Amino acid sequence: MVYHVPKGPDTSRSTASKQQLRKVFLACDVDDNSVLTKEEIKNAFDRCGALFPGFRAWKALKRVDKNGDGRVSLDELDDLIDYAYQRGYINVN
User: Fold this and answer.
1) What is the pTM of this model?
2) d(CA 22, CA 44)
3) Which of 21, 37, 4 has the alpha carbon at shortest distance from 92?
């Protein structure tokens, strides 16, 4: 009898995709203040190919904005990237 043992997630691929997402989000920080507004997050999701980037930005803020200031700081950026990655935004151009 042959058993298939899964290797687990391809961490090199997920790391590369998350790095690409980080670059997209940081590139959308137009005022370069290391804080992403809803509009900047919307632009990032638009670049990632979201059908409704405004909705996706709103949902992302609800999920990752821990201090409730309506923006995503560098401390919250990893959570935003994980959120985008989990929703399939991995092939970023």
Assistant:
1) 0.82
2) 10
3) 21
